[in-house]
Amino acid sequence: MEKHQIQRQSKVLFLLSWMAYSISYMGRLSFSACIGAIADDLSLSKAFLGSVGTVFMATYAVGQLVNGFIGDRVSPKYMVGVGLLGAGTANILMGFNDNPGLMLAIWMVNGWFHSMFWSPIIKALAEWMPEDRLSKAGANISTTIPVGTIMSYAIASLVLSLSSWRLVFIIGGIIMLLGGFVWFMGMAGLKDYIDYFEQTKKPKAVPDEPLESNPLTGLSFFPFLLRAGLSFAVAAILFNGVLKDGVTIWVPTFLSDFFAVSPAFSAAVSMIMPIVSLGGTYAAIYVNEKYIKNEMATTGLFFGLSALAILTLYLIGRLNIFVAVLMIALSLSGMLAVNAMLLTFIPFHFNRMGKAASVTGFLNACSYFASAFSSVSIGWIAEKKGWSMTILSWLLVALLGVLISFAGRRPWAKGRSFAAADSRD
Protein backbone atom coordinates (compact mmCIF):
# COMPACT_ATOMS: atom_id res chain seq x y z
CA MET A 1 0.00 0.00 0.00
CA GLU A 2 1.29 3.47 -0.94
CA LYS A 3 2.51 5.76 1.83
CA HIS A 4 0.07 8.55 0.94
CA GLN A 5 -2.82 6.06 1.07
CA ILE A 6 -1.74 4.90 4.52
CA GLN A 7 -1.54 8.48 5.77
CA ARG A 8 -4.94 9.41 4.36
CA GLN A 9 -6.74 6.31 5.59
CA SER A 10 -5.11 6.43 9.03
CA LYS A 11 -6.72 9.88 9.38
CA VAL A 12 -10.07 8.39 8.42
CA LEU A 13 -9.61 5.64 11.03
CA PHE A 14 -8.84 8.18 13.74
CA LEU A 15 -11.77 10.44 12.78
CA LEU A 16 -14.16 7.49 12.89
CA SER A 17 -12.84 6.48 16.33
CA TRP A 18 -12.99 10.07 17.57
CA MET A 19 -16.53 10.49 16.25
CA ALA A 20 -17.75 7.26 17.82
CA TYR A 21 -16.45 7.97 21.31
CA SER A 22 -17.42 11.65 21.28
CA ILE A 23 -21.06 11.04 20.38
CA SER A 24 -21.24 8.18 22.87
CA TYR A 25 -21.29 10.84 25.59
CA MET A 26 -24.65 12.02 24.27
CA GLY A 27 -26.09 8.65 25.13
CA ARG A 28 -24.61 8.44 28.62
CA LEU A 29 -24.86 12.03 29.93
CA SER A 30 -28.39 12.63 28.63
CA PHE A 31 -29.84 11.13 31.80
CA SER A 32 -27.70 13.29 34.12
CA ALA A 33 -28.74 16.41 32.20
CA CYS A 34 -32.44 15.52 32.48
CA ILE A 35 -32.75 14.25 36.07
CA GLY A 36 -34.54 17.37 37.33
CA ALA A 37 -36.96 17.46 34.40
CA ILE A 38 -37.71 13.73 34.67
CA ALA A 39 -38.34 14.04 38.42
CA ASP A 40 -40.84 16.86 37.89
CA ASP A 41 -42.60 15.28 34.92
CA LEU A 42 -42.97 11.73 36.25
CA SER A 43 -43.07 12.57 39.99
CA LEU A 44 -40.09 10.34 40.70
CA SER A 45 -37.79 10.79 43.68
CA LYS A 46 -34.20 11.85 43.19
CA ALA A 47 -33.22 8.75 45.19
CA PHE A 48 -34.84 6.51 42.60
CA LEU A 49 -33.33 8.46 39.72
CA GLY A 50 -29.96 8.21 41.44
CA SER A 51 -30.36 4.43 41.47
CA VAL A 52 -30.89 4.53 37.69
CA GLY A 53 -27.49 6.22 37.35
CA THR A 54 -25.94 3.66 39.68
CA VAL A 55 -27.35 0.79 37.60
CA PHE A 56 -25.77 2.33 34.51
CA MET A 57 -22.35 2.67 36.17
CA ALA A 58 -22.41 -0.86 37.60
CA THR A 59 -23.45 -2.41 34.28
CA TYR A 60 -20.87 -0.30 32.45
CA ALA A 61 -18.10 -1.49 34.77
CA VAL A 62 -19.07 -5.17 34.44
CA GLY A 63 -19.42 -4.70 30.70
CA GLN A 64 -15.91 -3.29 30.50
CA LEU A 65 -14.62 -6.54 31.99
CA VAL A 66 -16.63 -8.82 29.71
CA ASN A 67 -16.37 -6.79 26.51
CA GLY A 68 -12.67 -6.24 27.10
CA PHE A 69 -12.13 -10.00 26.82
CA ILE A 70 -14.54 -10.26 23.89
CA GLY A 71 -12.74 -7.35 22.22
CA ASP A 72 -9.53 -9.38 22.04
CA ARG A 73 -11.38 -11.94 19.93
CA VAL A 74 -13.89 -9.88 17.92
CA SER A 75 -12.93 -7.11 15.50
CA PRO A 76 -13.50 -3.50 16.66
CA LYS A 77 -15.28 -2.76 13.38
CA TYR A 78 -18.19 -4.88 14.62
CA MET A 79 -18.17 -4.09 18.36
CA VAL A 80 -18.12 -0.29 18.11
CA GLY A 81 -20.84 -0.23 15.44
CA VAL A 82 -23.11 -2.58 17.40
CA GLY A 83 -22.50 -0.50 20.52
CA LEU A 84 -23.58 2.71 18.77
CA LEU A 85 -26.72 1.11 17.32
CA GLY A 86 -27.65 -0.53 20.63
CA ALA A 87 -27.05 2.55 22.78
CA GLY A 88 -28.87 4.74 20.27
CA THR A 89 -31.91 2.45 20.37
CA ALA A 90 -31.88 2.43 24.20
CA ASN A 91 -31.87 6.24 24.28
CA ILE A 92 -34.80 6.47 21.88
CA LEU A 93 -36.77 3.96 23.97
CA MET A 94 -35.99 6.03 27.07
CA GLY A 95 -37.54 9.05 25.38
CA PHE A 96 -40.87 7.22 24.95
CA ASN A 97 -40.90 5.45 28.32
CA ASP A 98 -43.06 6.28 31.37
CA ASN A 99 -42.54 3.14 33.44
CA PRO A 100 -39.97 3.46 36.30
CA GLY A 101 -39.09 -0.26 36.29
CA LEU A 102 -38.58 -0.23 32.54
CA MET A 103 -36.46 2.90 32.93
CA LEU A 104 -34.02 0.91 35.08
CA ALA A 105 -33.92 -1.93 32.54
CA ILE A 106 -33.40 0.38 29.54
CA TRP A 107 -30.59 2.28 31.22
CA MET A 108 -28.93 -0.97 32.28
CA VAL A 109 -28.95 -2.10 28.64
CA ASN A 110 -27.59 1.31 27.66
CA GLY A 111 -24.70 0.88 30.10
CA TRP A 112 -23.85 -2.49 28.55
CA PHE A 113 -23.73 -1.12 25.00
CA HIS A 114 -21.60 1.82 26.17
CA SER A 115 -19.04 -0.63 27.51
CA MET A 116 -18.42 -1.74 23.91
CA PHE A 117 -16.60 1.46 22.87
CA TRP A 118 -13.34 2.23 24.66
CA SER A 119 -11.55 -1.12 24.65
CA PRO A 120 -12.26 -1.88 20.97
CA ILE A 121 -11.26 1.66 19.96
CA ILE A 122 -7.93 1.29 21.76
CA LYS A 123 -7.47 -2.06 20.01
CA ALA A 124 -8.32 -0.50 16.63
CA LEU A 125 -5.75 2.26 17.09
CA ALA A 126 -3.10 -0.18 18.33
CA GLU A 127 -3.64 -2.62 15.45
CA TRP A 128 -4.43 -0.35 12.52
CA MET A 129 -2.56 2.89 13.17
CA PRO A 130 0.99 3.34 11.80
CA GLU A 131 3.61 3.21 14.57
CA ASP A 132 4.73 6.79 13.93
CA ARG A 133 1.16 8.07 14.40
CA LEU A 134 0.13 5.92 17.34
CA SER A 135 1.34 8.21 20.13
CA LYS A 136 -0.36 11.25 18.61
CA ALA A 137 -3.56 9.28 18.11
CA GLY A 138 -3.45 8.12 21.74
CA ALA A 139 -3.17 11.72 22.89
CA ASN A 140 -5.81 13.13 20.56
CA ILE A 141 -8.41 10.47 21.41
CA SER A 142 -8.40 11.96 24.93
CA THR A 143 -10.05 15.10 23.54
CA THR A 144 -13.25 13.09 23.12
CA ILE A 145 -13.87 13.39 26.87
CA PRO A 146 -14.20 17.20 27.14
CA VAL A 147 -15.67 17.60 23.65
CA GLY A 148 -18.26 14.89 24.23
CA THR A 149 -19.14 16.32 27.65
CA ILE A 150 -19.55 19.90 26.43
CA MET A 151 -21.48 18.82 23.33
CA SER A 152 -23.84 16.64 25.36
CA TYR A 153 -24.69 19.26 27.97
CA ALA A 154 -24.96 22.05 25.39
CA ILE A 155 -27.44 20.10 23.25
CA ALA A 156 -29.38 18.95 26.32
CA SER A 157 -29.57 22.50 27.66
CA LEU A 158 -30.81 23.85 24.33
CA VAL A 159 -33.42 21.12 23.85
CA LEU A 160 -34.69 21.41 27.43
CA SER A 161 -35.16 25.15 26.97
CA LEU A 162 -37.24 24.58 23.82
CA SER A 163 -38.97 21.25 24.43
CA SER A 164 -39.12 18.32 26.88
CA TRP A 165 -36.57 15.91 28.33
CA ARG A 166 -37.92 13.19 26.05
CA LEU A 167 -36.56 14.94 22.98
CA VAL A 168 -33.07 15.02 24.55
CA PHE A 169 -32.99 11.21 24.56
CA ILE A 170 -34.58 10.88 21.13
CA ILE A 171 -32.15 13.31 19.46
CA GLY A 172 -29.17 11.71 21.20
CA GLY A 173 -30.38 8.27 20.14
CA ILE A 174 -30.84 9.31 16.51
CA ILE A 175 -27.34 10.83 16.42
CA MET A 176 -25.88 7.60 17.79
CA LEU A 177 -27.80 5.49 15.27
CA LEU A 178 -26.49 7.67 12.46
CA GLY A 179 -23.01 7.36 13.99
CA GLY A 180 -23.35 3.57 13.92
CA PHE A 181 -24.17 3.58 10.21
CA VAL A 182 -21.30 5.99 9.51
CA TRP A 183 -18.95 3.67 11.46
CA PHE A 184 -19.96 0.59 9.48
CA MET A 185 -19.69 2.43 6.15
CA GLY A 186 -16.32 3.88 7.16
CA MET A 187 -15.00 0.47 8.17
CA ALA A 188 -16.15 -0.97 4.83
CA GLY A 189 -14.22 1.77 3.06
CA LEU A 190 -11.09 0.91 5.09
CA LYS A 191 -11.21 -2.81 4.27
CA ASP A 192 -8.00 -2.88 2.20
CA TYR A 193 -6.23 -0.65 4.72
CA ILE A 194 -7.24 -2.89 7.66
CA ASP A 195 -6.26 -6.04 5.77
CA TYR A 196 -2.85 -4.50 5.06
CA PHE A 197 -2.18 -3.76 8.73
CA GLU A 198 -3.51 -7.09 9.97
CA GLN A 199 -0.90 -8.72 7.76
CA THR A 200 2.06 -6.37 8.35
CA LYS A 201 1.60 -6.10 12.15
CA LYS A 202 1.44 -9.84 12.72
CA PRO A 203 4.50 -11.19 14.56
CA LYS A 204 6.72 -13.14 12.20
CA ALA A 205 8.69 -16.24 12.97
CA VAL A 206 12.48 -15.90 13.14
CA PRO A 207 13.74 -19.36 12.19
CA ASP A 208 17.43 -18.54 12.45
CA GLU A 209 17.11 -17.66 16.14
CA PRO A 210 16.21 -20.03 18.96
CA LEU A 211 12.74 -19.46 20.32
CA GLU A 212 12.73 -18.27 23.90
CA SER A 213 9.90 -18.90 26.22
CA ASN A 214 8.05 -15.68 27.05
CA PRO A 215 7.02 -15.62 30.74
CA LEU A 216 3.66 -14.09 29.75
CA THR A 217 2.75 -16.71 27.16
CA GLY A 218 0.04 -19.19 28.11
CA LEU A 219 -0.93 -17.51 31.38
CA SER A 220 -4.56 -17.00 32.33
CA PHE A 221 -5.57 -13.38 32.77
CA PHE A 222 -4.91 -12.68 36.45
CA PRO A 223 -1.53 -14.47 36.62
CA PHE A 224 -0.75 -12.57 33.41
CA LEU A 225 -1.53 -9.25 35.17
CA LEU A 226 0.82 -10.11 38.02
CA ARG A 227 3.65 -11.35 35.79
CA ALA A 228 3.35 -8.32 33.50
CA GLY A 229 3.79 -5.93 36.44
CA LEU A 230 0.25 -4.61 36.05
CA SER A 231 -0.89 -5.13 39.65
CA PHE A 232 0.52 -1.69 40.44
CA ALA A 233 -1.34 -0.22 37.48
CA VAL A 234 -4.57 -1.72 38.85
CA ALA A 235 -3.99 -0.02 42.21
CA ALA A 236 -3.04 3.25 40.51
CA ILE A 237 -6.18 3.30 38.34
CA LEU A 238 -8.31 2.89 41.48
CA PHE A 239 -6.79 6.06 42.96
CA ASN A 240 -7.13 7.76 39.58
CA GLY A 241 -10.82 6.84 39.40
CA VAL A 242 -11.41 8.42 42.81
CA LEU A 243 -9.79 11.71 41.81
CA LYS A 244 -10.69 11.99 38.12
CA ASP A 245 -14.36 11.02 38.25
CA GLY A 246 -15.31 11.02 41.92
CA VAL A 247 -13.98 14.53 42.54
CA THR A 248 -15.38 15.85 39.25
CA ILE A 249 -18.90 14.84 40.27
CA TRP A 250 -18.66 16.93 43.44
CA VAL A 251 -16.88 20.03 42.09
CA PRO A 252 -20.11 22.01 41.39
CA THR A 253 -21.41 21.27 44.89
CA PHE A 254 -18.05 22.18 46.47
CA LEU A 255 -17.97 25.54 44.69
CA SER A 256 -21.61 26.29 45.57
CA ASP A 257 -21.17 25.37 49.24
CA PHE A 258 -17.73 26.86 49.80
CA PHE A 259 -18.10 30.13 47.88
CA ALA A 260 -21.90 30.57 47.86
CA VAL A 261 -22.05 30.93 44.08
CA SER A 262 -25.06 29.95 42.01
CA PRO A 263 -25.43 26.38 40.78
CA ALA A 264 -25.47 27.74 37.19
CA PHE A 265 -22.05 29.33 37.70
CA SER A 266 -20.68 26.18 39.28
CA ALA A 267 -21.97 24.08 36.40
CA ALA A 268 -20.47 26.43 33.83
CA VAL A 269 -17.06 26.27 35.53
CA SER A 270 -17.31 22.49 35.74
CA MET A 271 -17.88 22.29 31.99
CA ILE A 272 -14.84 24.44 31.25
CA MET A 273 -12.43 22.58 33.51
CA PRO A 274 -12.10 19.42 31.37
CA ILE A 275 -10.89 21.57 28.47
CA VAL A 276 -8.40 23.44 30.65
CA SER A 277 -7.09 20.22 32.15
CA LEU A 278 -6.63 18.46 28.79
CA GLY A 279 -3.07 19.81 28.52
CA GLY A 280 -1.99 17.29 31.15
CA THR A 281 -2.39 14.43 28.66
CA TYR A 282 -0.10 16.02 26.09
CA ALA A 283 2.42 16.99 28.77
CA ALA A 284 2.55 13.43 30.12
CA ILE A 285 3.09 11.94 26.66
CA TYR A 286 5.90 14.40 25.92
CA VAL A 287 7.63 13.80 29.26
CA ASN A 288 7.26 10.03 29.01
CA GLU A 289 8.57 9.75 25.46
CA LYS A 290 11.32 12.35 25.79
CA TYR A 291 12.66 11.71 29.29
CA ILE A 292 11.12 9.06 31.55
CA LYS A 293 10.19 6.26 29.11
CA ASN A 294 8.22 4.39 31.76
CA GLU A 295 4.44 4.86 31.99
CA MET A 296 4.25 3.99 35.70
CA ALA A 297 6.99 6.48 36.62
CA THR A 298 5.21 9.14 34.54
CA THR A 299 2.00 8.25 36.35
CA GLY A 300 3.76 8.80 39.70
CA LEU A 301 5.04 12.20 38.56
CA PHE A 302 1.58 13.43 37.58
CA PHE A 303 -0.02 12.04 40.74
CA GLY A 304 2.58 14.18 42.52
CA LEU A 305 1.65 17.29 40.53
CA SER A 306 -1.99 16.65 41.34
CA ALA A 307 -1.16 16.26 45.03
CA LEU A 308 0.68 19.60 44.95
CA ALA A 309 -2.36 21.30 43.39
CA ILE A 310 -4.69 19.77 46.01
CA LEU A 311 -2.36 20.88 48.82
CA THR A 312 -2.42 24.43 47.42
CA LEU A 313 -6.21 24.22 47.22
CA TYR A 314 -6.31 23.26 50.89
CA LEU A 315 -3.91 26.02 51.99
CA ILE A 316 -5.06 29.04 49.98
CA GLY A 317 -7.85 27.92 47.66
CA ARG A 318 -10.54 28.99 50.09
CA LEU A 319 -9.42 32.62 49.77
CA ASN A 320 -10.48 33.01 46.14
CA ILE A 321 -12.80 31.00 43.91
CA PHE A 322 -10.59 31.49 40.85
CA VAL A 323 -7.57 30.12 42.70
CA ALA A 324 -9.70 27.16 43.79
CA VAL A 325 -10.91 26.53 40.24
CA LEU A 326 -7.34 26.75 38.91
CA MET A 327 -6.04 24.26 41.47
CA ILE A 328 -8.88 21.82 40.79
CA ALA A 329 -8.23 22.14 37.04
CA LEU A 330 -4.51 21.47 37.57
CA SER A 331 -5.32 18.46 39.72
CA LEU A 332 -7.69 17.10 37.09
CA SER A 333 -5.05 17.80 34.45
CA GLY A 334 -2.72 15.48 36.33
CA MET A 335 -5.45 12.86 36.57
CA LEU A 336 -6.19 12.98 32.84
CA ALA A 337 -2.46 12.45 32.27
CA VAL A 338 -2.50 9.43 34.58
CA ASN A 339 -5.64 8.14 32.87
CA ALA A 340 -3.99 8.34 29.45
CA MET A 341 -0.90 6.46 30.65
CA LEU A 342 -2.89 3.68 32.32
CA LEU A 343 -5.85 3.23 29.95
CA THR A 344 -4.25 4.04 26.59
CA PHE A 345 -0.49 3.76 26.48
CA ILE A 346 0.08 0.76 28.76
CA PRO A 347 -2.52 -1.33 26.86
CA PHE A 348 -0.86 -0.39 23.54
CA HIS A 349 2.13 -2.54 24.58
CA PHE A 350 -0.01 -5.68 24.70
CA ASN A 351 -1.58 -5.44 21.28
CA ARG A 352 0.73 -7.97 19.60
CA MET A 353 -0.07 -10.44 22.37
CA GLY A 354 -3.77 -10.03 21.57
CA LYS A 355 -4.57 -8.52 24.99
CA ALA A 356 -4.87 -4.76 24.38
CA ALA A 357 -8.67 -4.78 24.71
CA SER A 358 -8.81 -7.03 27.77
CA VAL A 359 -6.11 -5.05 29.60
CA THR A 360 -7.74 -1.66 28.98
CA GLY A 361 -11.19 -3.11 29.67
CA PHE A 362 -10.13 -4.52 33.04
CA LEU A 363 -8.34 -1.31 34.06
CA ASN A 364 -11.29 0.82 32.94
CA ALA A 365 -13.69 -1.36 34.93
CA CYS A 366 -11.54 -0.89 38.04
CA SER A 367 -11.57 2.86 37.44
CA TYR A 368 -15.36 3.00 37.30
CA PHE A 369 -15.82 0.80 40.38
CA ALA A 370 -13.57 3.25 42.24
CA SER A 371 -15.52 6.20 40.84
CA ALA A 372 -18.81 4.74 42.01
CA PHE A 373 -17.42 4.14 45.50
CA SER A 374 -15.82 7.57 45.76
CA SER A 375 -18.90 9.49 44.62
CA VAL A 376 -20.72 8.11 47.66
CA SER A 377 -17.80 8.35 50.13
CA ILE A 378 -16.90 11.92 49.14
CA GLY A 379 -20.50 12.98 49.74
CA TRP A 380 -20.46 11.31 53.16
CA ILE A 381 -17.16 12.95 54.21
CA ALA A 382 -18.30 16.37 52.97
CA GLU A 383 -21.57 16.10 54.88
CA LYS A 384 -20.14 14.70 58.11
CA LYS A 385 -16.66 16.30 58.27
CA GLY A 386 -16.82 19.34 56.00
CA TRP A 387 -15.00 20.29 52.81
CA SER A 388 -11.60 20.92 54.42
CA MET A 389 -11.42 17.30 55.58
CA THR A 390 -12.72 16.19 52.19
CA ILE A 391 -9.88 18.01 50.41
CA LEU A 392 -7.38 16.37 52.75
CA SER A 393 -8.84 12.98 51.80
CA TRP A 394 -8.19 13.86 48.13
CA LEU A 395 -4.61 14.74 49.04
CA LEU A 396 -4.16 11.38 50.78
CA VAL A 397 -5.44 9.53 47.69
CA ALA A 398 -3.06 11.46 45.42
CA LEU A 399 -0.07 10.71 47.69
CA LEU A 400 -0.98 7.01 47.74
CA GLY A 401 -1.05 7.20 43.96
CA VAL A 402 2.48 8.61 43.96
CA LEU A 403 3.76 5.79 46.17
CA ILE A 404 2.08 2.93 44.30
CA SER A 405 3.09 4.28 40.89
CA PHE A 406 6.77 4.68 41.71
CA ALA A 407 6.73 1.27 43.42
CA GLY A 408 5.45 -0.21 40.18
CA ARG A 409 7.95 1.36 37.78
CA ARG A 410 10.46 -1.53 37.90
CA PRO A 411 7.90 -4.39 37.71
CA TRP A 412 6.27 -2.58 34.80
CA ALA A 413 9.61 -2.08 33.01
CA LYS A 414 10.14 -5.85 33.20
CA GLY A 415 6.59 -6.64 32.09
CA ARG A 416 6.85 -4.22 29.17
CA SER A 417 10.06 -5.92 28.05
CA PHE A 418 8.21 -9.27 28.06
CA ALA A 419 5.44 -7.77 25.89
CA ALA A 420 8.01 -6.35 23.48
CA ALA A 421 9.82 -9.69 23.25
CA ASP A 422 6.59 -11.34 22.14
CA SER A 423 6.38 -9.12 19.05
CA ARG A 424 9.71 -9.59 17.25
CA ASP A 425 9.30 -9.17 13.54
Shape: globular
Spans where pLDDT lies below 50 across 5 or more residues: 203-211
User: Would you count the extended β strands for me?
Assistant: 0
Looking at the chains present, what oligomeric state does this protein adopt? single chain
pLDDT average, as an integer?
A: 87
Q: What proportion strand?
A: under 5%
The ordered H/E elements are HHHHHHHHHHHHHHHHHHH
End-to-end distance:
19 Å
Query: Percent helix among the residues?
Result: over 70%
**DSSP helix count?**
19
Query: Class by helix and strand content?
Result: mainly alpha
Rg measurement, Å: 22 Å
Instruction: Please summarize the sheet with the most strands.
Output: none
Give a structural overview.
The structure is a single chain. The protein is globular, with a radius of gyration of 22 Å. The longest helix has 30 residues, at 356-385. Residues 203-211 have low confidence and may be disordered. α6 (118-128) packs across α17 (356-385), α8 runs antiparallel to α13 and α16 (321-348) runs antiparallel to α17. With 425 residues, it is mainly α. It has 19 helices and no strands.
